[in-house]
Write a structure and sequence with these properties.
single chain; 66 residues; Antimicrobial Peptide, Beta-defensin 2, Chain A; 2 helices
Length: 66
């Protein structure tokens, strides 16, 4: 009977650890979190490339004019 309680505690610890993890990594989601937009190949004006989304997509952000 004690083993059942121990298994229940282990199950709760595992479930809590998994709850905070994202389901999957998405490069497009990562670009949006950085404030960017995905464009095909090259970034258009007034955007600047900050990385890649997936495949041939570029992650671009709007330039700030000072």
């Amino acid at each position: 009977m004690r083993i059942l309680y121990l298994l229940l505690v282990v199950l709760f610890v595992v479930v809590q650890g998994v709850a905070g993890q994202p389901k999957s990594y998405s490069p497009i989601r990562a670009c949006r979190l950085r404030g960017g937009t995905c464009f095909a190949r090259l970034c258009r004006q007034p955007y600047q490339r900050i990385g890649s989304c997936a495949g041939r997509l570029s992650c671009c952000v709007r330039r700030r004019w000072n």
